[in-house]
Each structure stands twice: as structure tokens, then as C-alpha cells.
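Following the same procedure, the fold was encoded as C-alpha cells, giving this record:
***
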Amino acid sequence: MRKISHTFLGNRFLLVYGGITLLFVISFYWSTLFVVVQFLLIAAILATLLDFFLLHGNLFSIGVSRPVKPVLSLSDPEKIVLQLTYNLPYQAKITLIDEVPHQLEMRDMLLKDNLVGNSEKSYQYTVQPVTRGEYHFGKTHIFMQSFLGLLERKLTFDTEQETKVYPSTTQMKQFEMSTLRNSNPFLGIKKMRRIGQSYEFEQIRNYVSGDDYRSVNWKATGRANELMVNQFQDEKSQSIYFIIDKGRSMKLPFGGMSLLDYSINTTLAAANIALKKGDRVGLITVREQVDSVIKADSGMRHLRSIHEALYKEQPGHLEPNFEMLYTLISKAIRTRSLFFFFTNMESENNLMRNLPLLRSISKRHLLVVVNFENSGLAEYSETPAESAQDVYFKVAAKKRGLDKKLMLKILRSAGINAFLTQPKDLSSNTINKYLELKSRGLI
């Protein structure tokens, strides 16, 4: 019974038996045709039995495997390979159907081919994850037809596998290569070395005209019988925190990803650059409460901890709790640090309600508020209006864009560093800002 349940009627079966039925109807009026039709029916039945034997006998063997990486990167294309081994004494037509994770929303993943002989073949398709989390690749099914094509058999192979989709590491490596090779698109930034502006001793050297007389080392001067000064090096290891707003406004999608996903990818890319520059990095995520808190530290193992923490982050349904964020920063982060706060404040009222808390944080730390520009609304507002209703909607869209620019001016007038960016430019603009602040010696 199981063999029968996995056997289906092919299109050729319907055509053959449909034609024989039609001939039986015609033979009712033309009796000499009746005998011929009987022979055709017997031949069709014998061909069907032969087809069933070819599909369910031990004449062939087929195997399928699908090795998938245990970790995939968000928004990065990944090739999935189906490896097929077969031994077929006759030509067969196959259709492969792979059960891909439901998050990918691929409804037409079909691969078709004609096989004969003993060989191996590889088939591939490309997936591009747009959400983080666990992905389940299911079974692989093959629908096979022999050269007769009357019946079709379904073969199911246990290729189930779990994989995880993490924030993109490809983008992180790209920005690392371009930045550290000085071939990056961050133009107009010069690295300035400030001598004698920290308390970390580097060396004793000869006095040069223009040196601060307060740095003269009198003991070394007496021993060397010439004027010697202490040289101090810049403080290299600064604390950089990335604060991610996980409120409901961060659910907005742009280019297939949410604003939260853009912020997470940027956090990894910028954190990697900061670590390479000798700074320490930390992470804070906030929605109705403060969720993840990772103290600033250095090392690639620490970056992996941040990577693991960001893998499971999901947006909330309410606005972020700025009060809890301020309380945490006040109690847990005592030393002056640089904060990049990724948020999506939509209205001036929202900003004014939380501006005192942001100003208080800015007094003790170097705060950079990163707000998102709605590029879709900006493009929509520039298109010509065709009706009075269109005029209303376009004016509303234009006002939303002006509100964003007004909030930017309010933040800057309050002494808070801030910039407005489109989601696709978030990583480059954030890293650019970090390098600018570091070159100016503000951190």
C-alpha cells in the first residue's frame, strides 16, 4: 500500500486512457473499431504495469545530500547545493523539490533534469536570509518518471538540518579591509597624533623647541647633561558603547530588512573597526526594559560574545524606556565613553520628552544619536500628485521628512552629536563618524 500511496498518475497516463475512452465511445457507433480499442486498452494496462515495475523495482538507486553551513549571515546570499548520486539503467525524468525554511518564503523551488547511467550531479540555488534566528531545512523530495511516463513515483530523503542566521559578518569584513588599508570611502579624515595629552608614559627624549616645559625630566637632564623631556602617548584604549533601540519603530522594513537589522549589522562592523583601532567596545539594547548589557572590553572573543548576543534580539511592541537606560548608564558606566545610540524617533514630541535624559547622558559621555531618514517617504513626496488626495499624502510625507531634520537641529543645539542617515548608508556613516571623533581626539 505504501508503494501505491507514493505513486501518482502522469500527464501521459491521462492522455492515453482519455484517448482510449474516447475511442470506446466512437466504437459504439462504429462497431469494427471495438476490437482495436480492446487491444489498445490491454497494451496500455501492460505498459502501466511495466512502468510501475520500473519505478518500484530494484533496478535503480538514488541518493541525495544537502550540506548546509551551520551558520549563515543575514542579508548575504548563500548557495545551497544538492548533491545527487544515481544508478539508472534507463532514462528517467526527475523533479527535485527541497523543503526550504519558511522564513525564506520560497514557493517555487523546483529543479528538473533527465538522468541515465551511473553518475553524480550537483544542483544549486541561492537563498538570502532577511531575518535572524533558527532556520530549518526539511526533507528533499524527488518525483521520478521512467521513459514511459505513465506513472510518477515520489521519493523522500531525510536531509533535515538546522542552521542559524547571524548578523552579517561579510559586511563587517568588508569595512575592516577598506578602513585598515586606508582605501575606504571615508574621505576628509586625517589621523592626528597628539603628544603629551595623556598620562601614559612612552619614553624620555631630547628637548625640542616648542615642547611643554612642564614635561622636563630634571633627573634625566642632570644625568645626560642636556635638557630631556618626558613624552606621553595618546590613550589608545577608549570605551565605545553601541546602544540599540528595539522599540516598535525599529520594525520598519527597508530593502528587505528592518531598521533593527541594519543597526545590528552596523554595530558588528563598527565594533570590529573599533577593536582593530585598540578601543574597547560594549553593547546595550533597550525596549520596554534594558535587555542586553555587555561591558566594554577588547579582543576578538569579546566580539564573538556581542555577535552571539545580537543573534536573538527582537523588536518590542512599545517605545524604548529611556529612564531605565539613563539609570543603567549612570550606575554601571563611570568612565567617560563614546555612545552610538541607534534609534528611530518619529516625532518632535517624542524627542522633547526624552531630551533631558539625552542631555544628561551627553554631559558625562560623548553621545552620538543616529536617527533614520525615511527614504521611501522622501521619494514619494517628490513624485507628481494626480489628485487632491495625493496632494494631502505628499504634504504629510514631506512634513515627516522636515520633522526629522528639525529633530536633528534640536539635538545639535542641545550640545548632542547627531546625524540623519538612510538605512543603506548606516554602516559607512557610523564608521565615518567614529573615525572623525577619534582623529579629533574627542575620545
Summary: Residues 200-233 form one domain. Residues 388-413 form the longest helix (26 residues). The chain has four domains: 2-56, 61-166, 170-190+236-439, 200-233.
